[in-house]
Structures are given as structure tokens and as C-alpha cells.
Amino acid sequence: MAPRTHQYIKIEHMKMKSYQVNGSLGLGISAVILGITALSSQAIANETVLTCTAGQYQTKVEYDSLSSNYTYIAYDKNASRNRPSLILKNGRMETGHTANSYMFKNGNYSYILAKRFEGRGGQAFLSISKSGKQIFHQQCQ
Please, is 32 exposed, middle or buried when counting C-beta atoms within 10 Å of its C-beta (0-12, 13-18, 19+)? Predict the structure, then answer.
């Protein structure tokens, strides 16, 4: 029986082992291909579809292509740390005659980040409602 030898293959920051048994590298190559696929999938999973600065917040909507979900992320511009102050998942997008709207719910609060189509001015705005009553509405900068 031939002794087993080890080969190390480095892809970016990831080390993968493949074992060479009787001159065959089939399993090792499959592992490398799976590793590359996993890295490339993670790299394109989240895509920012809309950003907005309104009031004291910098907000953005991200689309996760792996789970087909929208996420609303808000950062306080005045905070010393760059950590989100609010993250809402499972938003939905609606396409209307004048704009694309991204809607999120958090208890009694509703958040809408919308962008008007270029033919309608192209502006984006953030609107926040509590129990159906609008408490904030501002055009994005």
C-alpha cells in the first residue's frame, strides 16, 4: 500500500487539505471548487440597492440574493462608533408608477425608503409612521 501524501492549497485566506491516494486528486479538487463557490457566493450575497441621509441618520437598504430578502440598516451620523442603531429584516419591495418603495415593519412603526424613477425627478425619501400616522418624512440628501 502506497503511503498517503498531503498537499496544501491556499485560496485567499483559506487553507484546504487534499489527500493524494494512488495518484488521484479527485476529492481534493472537488473541495477546492466548493470552497471557491462558497467564497464567491458570499461576496455577492448582499447588494446595497438604496442609500439615504435624512435627519440624523444614514440609512440603506440591502438585498440578499441568497435569501431574496431586503434589510433596512440605519446608522446614527453623530455616534462615535460606526455600528448600526437599527436593523430590520424581511422587508418587501413594491414597484409603483412613480417609484420603487422598500417597506419594513417594527412593532407599531413602519419605515418606507423610496426612490422616484428618473422621469419623475429621481429623488429618494424616507418616511416613518407610527400606528399609521406619519411622524417623519424627509427627502434624502
Answer: middle
- In this structure, are 97 and 127 located in the same domain? yes
Number of domains present in the structure of the chain: 2
Alpha-carbon distance of 99 to 83, in angstroms, equals 29
DSSP 26: H
21 and 74 inside one domain: no
R_g of the chain computed on alpha carbons: 23
| Mean of pLDDT values over 100-128 | 91
Least confident of 11-25, 43-57, 81-95: 11-25
In which domain, by residue range, is 10 found?
5-43
Write b or e for each residue in 101-113: b if 16 or more Cβ atoms lie within 10 A of its Cβ, otherwise e. bbbbeeeeebbbb
CA dist 4 and 23 (Å) reads: 10
Q: What is the pLDDT of residue 107?
A: 95
pLDDT of residue 44: 57
pLDDT at 33: 39
Kindly state the cell numbers that stand for 26: 479527485
Residues 129 and 102 in one domain: yes
Which pTM does this prediction carry? 0.65
